[in-house]
Amino acid sequence: MQEKDARQKRFEELKAQAEADDEERKNSSNSTAPVTMEDFEADWNVSQFWYDEETSRALGEELVEGASEGTNVALVSAPSVFVKLKNLMKDGLVPKCNIHLLEYDNRFALFGSEFTFYDFNEPLKLPAGLKGHFDRVLVDPPFLSEDCQTKAALTVRWLAKPSTIGDKPDRPDRIGSREEHPRIIVCTGERMKDVVDKMYKKAGVRCTGFEVRHAQGLSNEFRCYANFESARLRWTG
Q: Compositionally biased, Basic and acidic residues: which spans (predicted)?
């Protein structure tokens, strides 16, 4: 009980701080106090399973590698990567860029303008300004169902820059710049492979050998899919 009260107090302090300096938070390196996923208790009842530290960092680094201050990055239902990226940018460990979290859990609204409420049941019910806005997108659909995966994929298509989704990249090894296709990363259960292959085929997304791990542990085997390769993300099929 004391632990829960302490976490709630910490959360209220973070919320008050965020409301006070929302303009400064638009530059993700200006946060005055680090926020970690320990400040947000996962709720398994709504399919919340945070990545472990190593996975969050690896995915964040892959997503923003080669990015610039003008690069727009969306994290869809992946708050642990969003929080990790904020801290990595604050510490100067990854390129500074514009990151945005789309998430169902309103606790993350403490990030102000960097947060948008997102319900996969209404995949396109989002602010018009986000349409075709993002150079990089990472998505982790909350449920391992074809319905959820399909709707999340519609969201990714809607968010990504118009010239990127619809044509398979000619040079997937060179993906990442603003002039080419954006980096698309999909993290989900192994049994969703057929759905992912179908929904992201034109974007060049393929299964990689990267192991996605969760802090709480999951019995479902997870896979990472991407439309680019790197030393960590190597296509397996």
A: 1-27
Q: What's the whole-model pTM score?
A: 0.82
The domain ranges of the chain are 2-226
**C-alpha triplet 69, 29, 20: angle, nearest 5°:** 120
Classified as helix, coil or strand, 181 is coil
Q: Which residues pair with 225 in a beta bridge?
A: 186, 207
14: Cβ contacts below 8 Å, ≥ 6 apart: 33, 35, 39, 110
Residue 54 CA: distances (Å) to CA of 45, 81, 106, 215: 24, 10, 25, 10
- Average pLDDT estimate for 133-158: 98
Please list, in sequence order, all residues whose beta carbon lies within 8 angstroms of the beta carbon of residue 87, skipping any fewer than 6 positions away.
34, 35, 36
Q: β-strand 98-103 against 115-117: which pairing, if any?
A: parallel
Arithmetic mean of pLDDT, 139-164: 93
Radius of gyration of the CA atoms of the chain, in A: 17
| Averaged pLDDT, 135-162 | 97
Cβ neighbours of residue 89 closer than 8 Å, sequence gap 6 or more: 28, 29, 95, 96, 97, 99
Of the listed ranges 18-32, 56-70, 194-208, the one predicted with least confidence:
18-32
Q: How far apart are CA 133 and CA 76, in angstroms?
A: 14
How far apart, in whole angstroms, are the C-alpha atoms of residue 216 and residue 125?
A: 31
8 HSE (CA, 13 A, CB side): 5
The amino acid at 8? Q
